[in-house]
Amino acid sequence: MGNKINALGFRIPKFYCWNSKWILNKKNLIEDILIRNYIKKNFDNKYINNIFIEKSAENYIVLINSSKPGIIIGRSGINIKNMKFFFKKKYINVYISVKETINLEINSDNISKNICFSIEKRKNYKRIINIHMEKAMNYAIRGIKITISGRLNGSDIARKETFKLGKVQLIKINNKVSYSKSLSKTKYGIICVKVWINF
């Protein structure tokens, strides 16, 4: 039986860094979870690609990568002000910056969330996956692989389907691979979408 490892965690020293940077203790861990849960609860998750949290002295620096930063910031920055006010009551100083994600066609997190959103809208998953794969291959990438599993199209028996274009070599640590996993909640059950992009 093969042991599967997260493609991002496998490449952290070479291509990626940790999403949280602070001294390990119970207080920092609780505050980090509180910040992430607040962002996921109050903002639409399909527009959030990644959240980076760094603690310097007594302040937290939060960087949100979003496909639509205007929705996260809100009119006249009202959403950011509300977030700062909420954490100020809990004696947590937070500095927030929102950055727009570029090249959404080759962003694995954006692709997986768009596919899940389309499945919830009862669209044909094969057609949606092929459209995203063709768009991604227009960029200078080596390959893309998408796996979808669950009760597809409401079938009684759950199954898994894999779609692949180009070369996706996960075993080599020298290959830069972007990975994302998203869940789609349908009336038949939960459908899982995984995306690998080999640059």
TrEMBL record:
<keyword id="KW-0689">Ribosomal protein</keyword>
<protein>
    <recommendedName>
        <fullName>Small ribosomal subunit protein uS3</fullName>
    </recommendedName>
</protein>
<dbReference type="InterPro" id="IPR057258">
    <property type="entry name" value="Ribosomal_uS3"/>
</dbReference>
<dbReference type="GO" id="GO:0003729">
    <property type="term" value="F:mRNA binding"/>
</dbReference>
<dbReference type="GO" id="GO:0003735">
    <property type="term" value="F:structural constituent of ribosome"/>
</dbReference>
<dbReference type="GO" id="GO:0022627">
    <property type="term" value="C:cytosolic small ribosomal subunit"/>
</dbReference>
<dbReference type="GO" id="GO:0006412">
    <property type="term" value="P:translation"/>
</dbReference>
<dbReference type="InterPro" id="IPR001351">
    <property type="entry name" value="Ribosomal_uS3_C"/>
</dbReference>
<feature type="domain" description="KH type-2">
    <location>
        <begin position="35"/>
        <end position="110"/>
    </location>
</feature>
<keyword id="KW-0694">RNA-binding</keyword>
<comment type="similarity">
    <text>Belongs to the universal ribosomal protein uS3 family.</text>
</comment>
<keyword id="KW-0687">Ribonucleoprotein</keyword>
<keyword id="KW-0699">rRNA-binding</keyword>
<dbReference type="Pfam" id="PF00189">
    <property type="entry name" value="Ribosomal_S3_C"/>
</dbReference>
<dbReference type="InterPro" id="IPR004044">
    <property type="entry name" value="KH_dom_type_2"/>
</dbReference>
<dbReference type="InterPro" id="IPR009019">
    <property type="entry name" value="KH_sf_prok-type"/>
</dbReference>
<comment type="function">
    <text>Binds the lower part of the 30S subunit head. Binds mRNA in the 70S ribosome, positioning it for translation.</text>
</comment>
<dbReference type="InterPro" id="IPR015946">
    <property type="entry name" value="KH_dom-like_a/b"/>
</dbReference>
<comment type="subunit">
    <text>Part of the 30S ribosomal subunit. Forms a tight complex with proteins S10 and S14.</text>
</comment>
<dbReference type="Pfam" id="PF07650">
    <property type="entry name" value="KH_2"/>
</dbReference>
<dbReference type="InterPro" id="IPR005704">
    <property type="entry name" value="Ribosomal_uS3_bac-typ"/>
</dbReference>
<dbReference type="InterPro" id="IPR036419">
    <property type="entry name" value="Ribosomal_S3_C_sf"/>
</dbReference>
<dbReference type="GO" id="GO:0019843">
    <property type="term" value="F:rRNA binding"/>
</dbReference>
